[in-house]
Amino acid sequence: MGIFKKILKNAKENMAEAKENFEKVKAEEKVKIAEAKENLKTSAAEMKEELREEKVKIAEAKENFKDEVKTSAAEFKEELRDIKDAFDETGGFSAEGLTKGAREETKRLLDEKEEARNKKYEKIREEQAVKREEE
User: Fold this and answer.
1) Fewest CB atoms less than 10 Å from the CB: which of 2, 17, 52, 80?
2) Owning domain of residue 37
3) CA–CA separation, 57 vs 123, rounded Å?
4) pLDDT tens across 14-26, in order?
């Protein structure tokens, strides 16, 4: 019976050691899970903050664009008023109707305005593209 006691004793020691290792691994896993949960909470909070910041940037860009459109529209109206006033002052009509010179001047002014407007919008598009690249 001495050998069986020895085997039983070794088995008990091995089981105690296995239980101790299991408890150790279990405790380590609990720590890892707790850390992962905390990291997830931190990441979620960071993502929420980034999302909030992006929403603010979008709102600001939208407001800036709206202001730019309003300004452009106001400038365009003012320039049209100036063209109309100049036309009203200088005439441009003959007995047959609008003179060739008046038609050419009107076309030139409108073309000039369109070119200036296109340049302005191109500049706005370029600025927005640069901002998007920076982000």
Assistant:
1) 2
2) 2-134
3) 20
4) 898 989 999 999 9
